[in-house]
Design brief:
Layout lengths: L5 H11 L6 H36 L1
Helix pairs in contact: 1-2
């Protein structure tokens, strides 16, 4: 595995925890978020937070 800065390595590790996401896919997703800039990253985080909140309400 390539050496990445600690925050990027943590982000990749978190994406790898998703079902069906391997190392390469996790890296691609992380780099995509970096390229899209802050707006795209915030939108992604908000969508994920909304899904998590909905799941917790159902549990």
């Amino acid at each position: 595995m390539a050496d990445f800065a600690e925050p990027l390595a943590r982000l990749i590790l978190e994406f790898r925890r998703l079902p069906g996401i391997g190392q390469k896919s996790a890296q691609r997703i992380a780099f995509h978020l970096l390229r899209t800039g802050r707006g795209g990253s915030i939108t992604c985080c908000m969508a994920r937070s909304a899904r998590c909140a909905a799941f917790l309400r159902l549990s």
